[in-house]
Model the fold of this input.
Amino acid sequence: MGNSTAYPVLRTTDPAEACAAAERLCALLAHCEDEVGLSAELLTADDVRRTAEALPGARFHYTDARTGPAGEYLRFELDPRTADDAALAPHLPLDVQVDAPAGSVAERFAAAVGRGRGMAAVDWRGRWPDDPETGSVGSPKYDGVQIVFHGDSAQWGGWAEHHTVFVHVGKFGDEPRARKLAAAIGAEILGEAQLGW
Done:
């Protein structure tokens, strides 16, 4: 059990730049999982519609559990692509969490949530190659790349104007590896190590 250690390596207000940097980092993985994790909190009707267009067929959920008059749990049932603002407003905020084939939707999703009002993330999990130069060994349970849209924290802290790209490197951290990965994309570590996924 436990969490990875995440190092921020890029901050930008351009979601496409964040996505391109993350994809360059993913290319350095010795192994990348076949699916990418996508998650977002959606605060406005426009956020919901843009995200629904980027993720056709995804199920949206109430951010906080809602119950009906008999105590039953309510599900969000509207088609977010066709519902108007007045129909969506009482259902906000919503969230979405899906796994999608790697390489299929990350750029569309980044464009949709990068302009949004809520926080969101794309998670690529994998394993960094063993690196005799730094003494680093890959860890498939903890390694990977993450973009947090509108935030500075790998654990989704407070909202920010910018987007942050993280490298996740093992349970106990590995600053030499993180520095080397950041340098490979022309970046550097931008602060303290953080609790990752």
The CA atoms of residues 143 and 169 lie 5 Å apart. The radius of gyration is 18 Å. The first strand starts at residue 5 and ends at 12. The helical segments are 15-26, 45-54, 85-88, 106-114, 175-184.
